[in-house]
Structures are given as structure tokens and as C-alpha cells.
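pinned: reference chain
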Amino acid sequence: MLAQERQNLILELLEKRGTVRTIDLAQEFHVSDETIRRDLQILEESQTISRVHGGASTLNGRAKLQSFSERRLLEVQKKAAIARVALDLIQPGQTYAFDSSTTGFALVTSLPDLPYRVLTNAYAVIDHLVGMQQIELISTGGSYHPKTQTFISGDSYATLRRHNINYAFVSCIGLDPKRGPSEGFEQQAGFKESLIQVARNVVLLVDSSKFNQHSEYFFASLREITEIITDSDADPEFIEDLRAQGCRVTVANL
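pinned: its C-alpha cells
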């Protein structure tokens, strides 16, 4: 791999994560720590990153907030595989809640038109299900945030608390093996935190690219997650670590 190509990939990782460690980059690109340090020095001199102890960060120290449209194009096959497994949990007469994640939306696009209730703060979910005849569709309300296509704030917690939610389907930007799932958008993290507090079962739909990653706002501990559904590209050691902590992990074949 050429140095320029590697440096471009480092910038992409910084946009996703906000910060990166030299040792992790060296392992990821199969090069020496010294090679990565030279890459980071070049990027710093071009004023595209900030060097920090042991690694680098974006100029503002934060990950880039990607739009819903951008996120839909990422890891499409993995999200589809996860959705196929999660679909087995959908039954008539139940109440389900969805966040505005694109992994959750992959499940929504497969939902059958049956008599059950769906609560959501996601415009894409509402737009897709509004034509269904048997599904009872409920928006949790709030102000519309165009980039994430999410309704935020308002009385969403009161709406969630009012219903007996059998399953909440949520996703995340990163899954840390100690601190749990996290988000890069504070209001969305707050919504998920509220949803997890009232749902009877919480299913985390998370593709393997998000393992060992974290963003700015943690919204749940691992013990609050009923089940984690991921894909077969996941690191077996990471999965075993989750299971050793008492997590139920289901792996979807690609």
C-alpha cells in the first residue's frame, strides 16, 4: 500500500472515530509504529489532523457526524444479514421500537404487513411504513434534524413510557467491550437511553466493523442489552469476550 493511500485511510478512520492510536493503526495496516508516526507527522504538517500522545485526533477532537444517506451505503451486506436474523423476532400483536440507525432500517425494509405496533423517531422508518395497512405506526415526536433524518427532543420519553414495548431495536457507532455502545449525536444517544429504560427487551444490531470502537456518547451498559446480533466477519475473540461478560450474542452468516 502506498503511503498516500494509507494516509487517506487514516483520515477516513479519524472521521469515523474522532481519535486513533498509533499502535492500533500499525496493526491495522500491518506496518511499523514508526511508519504510522511518519504518516501522522505528514498529516499534521498539512493541517488536517492534530497529534496527541500515542496517536492523533481530528482538528476538533470529534468524529464527523455522517448523514443517514452516507451511513446507508456502509456495510450493506452485513446489515442485511443482521436484519434477516432479527426478523425472526417480529410477531403479530407485539410492540416494537426503532431508532434512526441504518442497520435498524435494514430490518424495517423487511417487515411484513401484520397487526403490530411500531414506535420510532426516524423519518425513514415512518416514510417506509406509512403505507402499511395493518401496522400501527407511532412517531415519538420532536423537532426534525435533517442530517440524521431524526426527530429529537420533544416529549419522546413520555411517548415511549406510555407503551409496553416488547422489543427495542437499536444500533450504535461503536461497541466498546467495557463501556458498551456509543453514539456521535448526543440527542440520539439520549433517545436510545430513554428507550432502553422502558423496553422489555433490547436488541443491539451492530455490524462487526463497529467492534472495539467508541464515539462520544455512551448510552447503555452491556448488562442492559438483551441480545447482540452481529455478522460472521466479527472477531471471535471479541465475541467470546462479550459472552464471558454474560451477553447473548447471535452471529448472522454473510
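why pinned: The CA atoms of residues 140 and 156 lie 5 Å apart. The chain has two domains: 3-57, 68-252.
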